[in-house]
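Summary for the funding panel

The consortium committed to producing paired sequence-structure records for every protein in the target list. Below we show the first two records in order, beginning with the earlier of the two.
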Amino acid sequence: TTSRPPGYPFFLSVIYLVFGHNLLAVWIIQSCIWVLTCLVIFLIGDKLFNFSTGAVASLIAGIYPAFIHYQYYGGPAFILTETLFTFLLTLSMFSLIIYLKNRSYSWIIIAGFLFGLSALTHATIFLFPFCLIFWFYLAKDKTSNWIKYFLVFCACFLFTIAPWSVRNYLVTGKFVTITAKAGESLWGGNNLWAKGGFALIRTFHFPDYNIREFSGLNEVDADKLKFKKGIEFLRNNPKKIPFLFLKKVLVHWSPINESKRFNYSYFIIGALAFFSMLELFFQNRLTDISLFLCLF
């Protein structure tokens, strides 16, 4: 199938190969991975600020309710990608910070490899490495060629995901980088019934879906048709784009979750993030700020 990236299934297959189909083993290993994630968060805080900041950040991550028990997105006790993906993404960001400190090709290679693994675990991160061209430009110094560093980074990223892209071509006969889900995401978020979130196609929330139109299509061709419909909506409704964009921003940053419950820790984390960015700004560390702004 091309409907999901291979990273997490491969992760589970290794665990099942060693321990058998044992969910307890998955929970324990994912809990250990989350502990390692908190450790990496500590290292990021220590590198960007100081030991105390890293320790506090790690403590907050360890007790943050949304991290301990993702009600909708999956925590260590769930058989979902988020725990592994968060670890890989955090480790990827840390590797870029280390590169920034010593301008080493070895760390930029590691960063490209880790971002590749992150994309193979959760394909939503696929375009992020290419957006980092602005960060590499800001991170340049007089003694380094930032374009070379960026190209090496992208090459390592693409090299990491290339085997899966080749596999997809051999299986489907069509070029699919990681997953054939771009069309579903585009059309699901851009339609007459869109409220800033994602309308799950094939449900009663999505009246535009006509099952006959998609019958007989393989998953790659079906996704291409969905992508075409998403583009058609944007082309035919240009005046709706700014309002829809505003709705998406509000939904993304809203402290009210999908079950209409108030996330009491939202403002605490938001305030800490804001003041951290503010301190970096007053220290004239725009490169550090831009890295996390690119991620957002």
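The next record, for a separate protein in the list, is shown here:
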Amino acid sequence: GGVEGLVYSPAVLGRLDIHYSSPRHRVEARQTVTIAALLGDGPVPLDWDAGFELALDPAQLMDRPPAGAQFHPLPPAAGRAAAFRGWEKSLRTWVRQRRPLTLLASKRYQVSSQPGETEDLFRGRLGQVMREKRDLAVEGLRRKYEPRFGVLRNRLLRAEQAVSREQQQVDARKADTAISLGSALLGAFLGRKTVSAGTTRRVGGALKSAGRLHKEKMDVVRARETVAAVQADLAELEARFAADLAGIEGALDPGSVALDTLLVKAKAADITPEIFGLVWLPFRRGSDGSLQADWG
């Protein structure tokens, strides 16, 4: 745009190398930023809160302005070297306090974003972390429940074996009772007028066998009740395991995870000025008399 309406204003510029470090959050990052603030005539000639960042390549800085450009007056404070030392110190303080590295973090999964990583990319990476933690949680859940399942399965196996054993005893007792009773009745009905003592004993033995058969049938009933009770305990444990597993699986949506803002502040010793000093920034005066930045 030539020099028509070109006005240079004095400013202080600092180009800083900033090292952000947080071992707790496993963050190590470096940034180079250029910050400038205009100089004024008031009681506070320089205010970094009113400053701004510049996307500046040091090669863009010129030794002299174009011929014919206008300049705003230089405030008296800019003529003192001590003022620049104070401004440099205050810039470091300002950067430490006002320009932290802003990251996203999940406290639950103990992971934070990387410098420059967008929220979408971070949530994608968070999803992988969640799946890995899910797999570990599922494995831990299986280890927790497996001994309980083992106890109940062994108990069920013993109960089923008891049913089989008791049923075999009942079947054998049925046969013995039938033979004993049949033999006793056969002796009693062979046409004898009197029942011998042997026949009486056989009938008594058959009746006792029938009594034992009833008892053993009841043993089968109780054994089956034990099987049913163990099966109910096993079903209840399986339901609890399924509910706990569903709780783990249900928390797998990285989009639903609440994220916190993590602020990592640089230490004073980790802020190193590469360039610091007085610069003249170009502005262009518009038709209405207002000044607009003429860089960028």
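Regarding this second record: The mean pLDDT is 86. The chain has three helices and nine strands.
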